[in-house]
Design brief:
The complex is a heterodimer. Chain A has two domains: 2-184, Rossmann fold (3-Layer(aba) Sandwich), CATH 3.40.50; 197-325, 3-Layer(aba) Sandwich (Rossmann fold), CATH 3.40.50.920. In chain A, 36% of the residues lie in helices and 20% in strands. Chain A contains twelve helices and 14 strands. In chain A, α1 runs parallel beside α7 (151-163), α3 packs parallel to α4 (91-97) and α8 (214-228) crosses α12 (313-325). Chain B folds into two domains: 12-326, Thiamin diphosphate (ThDP)-binding fold, Pyr/PP domains (Rossmann fold, 3-Layer(aba) Sandwich), CATH 3.40.50; 330-368, no CATH class. Helices cover 46% and strands 9% of the residues of chain B. In chain B, β3, α6 and β4 (185-191) form a beta-alpha-beta unit. The termini of chain B are far apart. The chains are: A alpha/beta, B alpha/beta. The interface between A and B is large, with 41 and 51 residues. Bound molecules: thiamine diphosphate. Thiamine diphosphate sits between chains B (93, 132-134, 161-165, 192, 194-196, 257, 261) and A (29, 58, 60, 82, 86, 89).
């Protein structure tokens, strides 16, 4: 075991899987010589050479497109889009081609690729470097969408993603790339795609989130438990598609109250889907409407205003209070 | 039947003022002396601004920003060829050109301070604001140019982008569309040799980037991008072509980013100090100073005066920008999403207002970290 931050944990996963599986190749803008702008791919070029680790021109559609081709040919591409917002430049390749190959060929072809991208806001970055566009991928059947929140699961989920037979969009909450350290075992550890994790158990309310906001949620929960004399269950989704409906429903059946927290805009966001499933499967267990704490339905603001946009502890706490008092 | 050669192409290179300040008088354009000084002023201002911005960034008063150091000539030289009613579509290292065009300094600062106010530029400048999505602006430029064409207006659009941008699909679609419609647009590729860490040689196998134009049916020309005179003359030709309805041109301005990609970058990871020094010897400001001196337009004393004046101008702009930032209302993030806000968004705005009511002012909580 060693204490690692998320960048180191992801790097470990890539190193180990590349050593183990020769089909794994890593490429993207500035990933080789530079080791990625966030250094997630640091040292891979030296260890595995330029045939398996290479820089691309500034060409997102190209990156996703050749990744699809590599995967069709039986390789295991792990490509990087420098910031997830730039994936919009490649959505036709991702959503209309990579996502559909298996289905349209009745399983003859498959696209086992991973598209990694730093994701989310809160780091005073430039415009378009802060997007939370996961709901876009959730509307592209054929893709899986994974968003880890802490180093240990990040490593274990990246391994699972590389081994998955289908295309996985792997979104990395850059705000907590280096701010959190966790024990991450040296030995291989895989965490299954499609399973949410109950971070702490509770009886009076279910708080559901994913990504960097898990930290704010945990802070809010501690305060709420003190202030309101309740116990709160916290679910870290980890996988957005396929959603772990069962863990959500079982928890809400127990607590009867639920708050969903994410950074992305509110309307038609992941919270909307979660609430729909709760309504479908356990509406009558609810003691209060399910609350959402989200970004607003506006373009992500330039960074001087991002603090006003991002969900924070007071907003989460307020939603918890309203839901408890309903 | 033997094979025949169907087509043959060439790509020219233009330099007028060399790195030692020697001018080719047969090619030297007749620019007024006031303009020559104005060029000097804007390049000096851009360079001083760059240094000041680095300090502000280190102090947390400015966000990550891309340095223009070493690239002050290309944009400015090209923009000299534009009229005020022509459209200018910059990339993010065209400070000298934007300042020449009349962009208030504090506006530029506000952009890198993370405020939308910094993307709200005086409309009469006919300048689009700074693009972040690489290559995207090339298509907008073609659209602007087509509007001029459709309206029968005699305007030209000039668009800037980097060597890396030539790898994006948007760039190729822009070139193709401009060629097909003979749009009055001038594409200016500011080739500073790197796209973050990726060198020009790995961006494209093309011997020159200018030659990409040929495939789309219009001329491409390579220019010494550290030579204001060459950039001006090349742009002048391209602008005239466009104005006469003869279609687009691609200029490739060869230059070098002497600083880091942005303040978040460490160039020592991917390039040698020796290479940097070679390019430092070709500094655009140095040769321009020699040129002015030879023409009796420059002295140490004038320089000292100029720098004092520019320093004051910069400090005033920093002050103005920070004043605006201090009073910026975070809730304005809602106000320009649509021409008219839906009841839904108005409700969200009220919700945000409630949470902000007790928090600190914008400047205290965010602009200064
Ligand atoms: C579509 C898109 N992809 C990637 C990026 C990240 N990025 C920012 S600048 C840059 C390099 C651009 O290089 P170049 O076009 O040569 O311009 P330079 O920065 O050298 O002036 C990259 C890859 C981006 N902003 N937009």
């Amino acid at each position: 075991m060693a204490l690692r931050n998320m960048v180191q944990a992801l790097n470990l996963a890539l190193r180990q899987e590349m050593a183990k599986d020769e089909r794994v190749v890593v490429f993207g803008e500035d990933v080789a010589r530079q080791g990625g702008v966030f250094r997630v791919t640091e040292g891979l070029l030296d260890q595995f050479g330029g045939r398996r680790v290479f820089d691309t021109p500034v060409s997102e559609a190209g990156i996703i497109g050749i990744s699809t081709g590599l995967a069709l040919a039986g390789m295991r591409p792990v490509c990087e889009i420098q910031f997830s917002g730039f994936m919009f430049n490649a959505l036709h390749q991702l959503g209309l081609m990579a996502a559909r190959y298996r289905c349209r060929s009745r399983g003859l072809f498959s696209v086992p690729m991973v598209v990694r991208a730093p994701w989310g806001g809160g780091v005073r970055a430039l415009e378009l470097h802060n997007e939370s566009e996961e709901a876009v991928y959730a509307q592209m059947p054929g893709l899986k969408v994974v968003i880890p929140s802490r180093p240990r699961r990040a490593r274990a989920l990246l391994l699972a993603s590389i081994r998955d037979p289908d295309p996985v969009v792997f979104l990395e909450p850059k705000r907590v790339y280096r701010s959190l350290r966790e024990e991450v075992p040296d030995d291989e550890e895989v965490f299954p795609i499609g399973e949410a994790e109950i971070i702490r158990h509770g009886r009076h309310l279910t708080l559901i989130t994913y990504g960097a906001l898990l930290q704010e949620c945990l802070q809010a929960v501690e305060q709420a438990e003190r202030d309101f004399q309740v116990s709160i269950e916290v679910i870290d989704l980890l996988t957005i598609v396929p959603l772990d409906t069962r863990t959500i429903v079982e928890s809400v059946q127990k607590t009867g109250r639920c708050v969903v927290v994410h950074e992305a805009p509110r309307s038609c966001g992941i919270a909307s889907e979660i609430i729909a499933r709760i309504n479908e499967q356990c509406l009558l267990y609810l003691h209060a409407p399910v609350a959402r704490v989200t970004g607003y339905d506006i373009p992500y603001p330039f960074f001087a205003r991002e603090h006003a946009y991002l969900p924070n502890v007071p907003r989460i706490l307020d939603a918890i209070r309203r839901t408890l008092e309903f | 039947m033997p094979r025949q050669q169907l087509a043959q192409f060439h790509v020219d290179y233009l330099q007028i003022l060399d790195e030692n300040g020697r001018v080719d008088t047969t090619l030297e354009p007749p620019l007024p002396e006031a303009t020559l000084w104005q060029v000097h002023r804007c390049m000096t201002l851009a360079r001083m601004l760059d240094r000041r911005m680095h300090i502000l960034q280190q102090q947390g008063r400015l966000g990550t920003f891309p340095s223009c150091y070493g690239q002050e000539a290309a944009g400015l030289g090209c923009v000299l060829a534009l009229r005020q009613d022509d459209w200018l579509v910059p990339c993010y290292r065209e400070n000298s050109a934007l300042l020449y065009r009349g962009l208030p300094l504090h506006n530029l600062l506000l952009f890198w301070m993370g405020l939308e106010e910094g993307a709200y530029w005086p409309r009469e400048l006919r300048v689009l604001s700074i693009p972040i999505l690489i290559g995207s602006q090339t298509l907008h430029a073609v659209g602007l140019a087509l509007a001029s064409q459709i309206r029968g207006a005699n305007e030209v659009t000039m668009v800037f982008f980097g060597d890396g941008a030539t790898s994006e699909g948007d760039f190729h679609e822009a070139c193709n569309l401009a060629g097909v419609y003979q749009a009055p647009v001038v594409f200016v590729c500011v080739n500073n040799q790197y796209a973050i860490s990726v060198p020009r040689s790995q961006q494209s196998r093309s011997e020159t980037l200018a030659q990409k134009a040929i495939a789309y049916g219009f001329p491409g020309l390579v220019v010494d991008g550290n030579d204001v005179l060459a950039c001006y003359v090349a742009a002048q030709e391209a602008v005239e072509r466009a104005r006469l309805g003869r279609g687009p041109t691609l200029l490739e301005c060869l230059t070098y980013r002497l600083g880091p990609h942005t303040t978040a970058d460490d160039p020592r990871r991917y390039r040698s100090e020796q290479e940097r020094q070679q390019w430092e010897a070709r500094d655009p400001l140095k040769r321009w100073r020699i040129y002015l001196e030879q023409r009796g337009l420059w002295s140490e004393q004038q320089q000292a005066e100029l720098e004092r004046e520019l320093q004051a101008e910069i400090e005033l702009a920093v002050h103005q920008a920070e004043q605006i930032a201090a009073h910026a209302d975070p809730l304005e993030m809602f106000d320009f999403v649509y021409a008219e806000l839906s009841p839904d968004l108005l409700a969200q705005r009220r919700e945000a207002a409630e949470f902000l009511a007790h928090s600190e002012t914008l400047s205290a909580s965010s602009v200064r970290r």
